[in-house]
UniProtKB/TrEMBL annotation:
Source organism of this protein record: Paenibacillus antri
Classification of source organism: Bacteria, Bacillati, Bacillota, Bacilli, Bacillales
Family matches, as Pfam families: ABC2_membrane_2
Keyword terms: Membrane, Transmembrane, Transmembrane helix
Protein known as: ABC transporter permease
PANTHER family listed in its UniProt record: ABC TRANSPORTER PERMEASE
Length: 281
């Protein structure tokens, strides 16, 4: 299994998209740190109250993590959308599948290889944003909140990875990438719409649509739960992000929903292993 993890990393580094992702991530973190420092300096000069500075740092945290999930999601899409059909088209899959290893184990090894590096990238990105806000904007964070938020933030791209790898068994590389990106964008859009409707009351039809999309691809719901855990250290911190327009959290996914996401990943992996075992190479 270690061999496949190492091979996945070598494969990722050979792709130009990996270098582009690293460069853009570095640029994002530098610009985010610069913006956090400037805003913190402006708040200090204006002699705003501690509560106002705390609220501003929370808003900056929400925006930073929102764009961080974008980077994490697109890293998943570009690195795994051709895991099966892409390697099949260039002949690499046939050479790998010729080894004396059951196909379902090969599929799981490929998933684990991608998952390790995606989780590492997402964790570094998440902690970098948290550290930037904590050190430059003075936002107090609790270790327990950070750990819970980190676990959920890392879990979010793994959900997308499971879906993208299943799609790579059936769809061409470009088609799979477009399909997964549209589903991710739809889940993100419904989350933003749900944040706006917090001002207008409940809409039964919209609530059912949001629930359906959340069951189809629960990435945005897991992200919102991660955000709530990070900023929810104080009793009123959750209220601070309930009045941010499309970035508001109108409802927090329950622990039962998180158990559903675990079953969601298990089901996708089972379907992927079965389809890959029957695929004509």
């Amino acid at each position: 299994m270690t061999m496949y993890i190492s091979a996945t990393f070598k494969e990722l580094t050979r792709k130009r998209v990996f270098l582009v992702t690293i460069v853009l991530t570095f640029v994002f973190l530098v610009l985010f740190a610069f913006g956090a420092r400037e805003l913190a300096g402006a708040a200090a000069q204006s002699q705003s109250s501690p509560a106002e500075r705390l609220l501003n740092s929370m808003v900056l945290m929400v925006l930073g993590l929102f764009f961080a999930q974008f980077l994490s999601a697109f890293f998943v899409l570009f690195s795994s959308m051709g895991t099966v059909t892409g390697e099949q088209e260039n002949g690499l899959l046939l050479a790998v599948a010729a080894r004396p290893l059951p196909r379902w184990k090969l599929y799981l090894a490929k998933w684990l290889g991608h998952a390790v590096w995606i989780a590492a990238y997402s964790a570094i990105l998440f902690l970098s944003v948290i550290w930037t806000i904590h050190s430059l904007a003075g936002l107090p964070v609790l270790a327990g909140d950070v750990v819970r938020g980190l676990a959920l933030f890392v879990w979010m791209p793994l959900l997308l990875l499971s879906l993208t790898m299943l799609g790579s068994v059936y769809l061409p590389m470009l088609g799979n990438g477009i399909c997964a990106a549209l589903l991710y964008g739809l889940a993100l859009f419904t989350g933003l719409v749900e944040g706006i409707t917090v001002y207008e009351g409940s809409h039964p039809a919209l609530d059912k649509f949001v629930l359906l999309i959340g069951l189809l691809l629960p990435t945005d719901s897991v992200y919102r739960r991660s955000l709530y855990e990070v900023i929810g250290g104080a009793d009123w911190a959750g209220l601070a992000i309930s009045d941010m327009g499309p970035f508001s959290i109108s409802s927090v996914p329950s622990n039962s929903y998180l158990l559903y996401t675990a079953g969601y990943v298990a089901l996708l992996l089972l379907l992927g292993c079965r389809a890959f075992s029957r695929k004509d190479l």
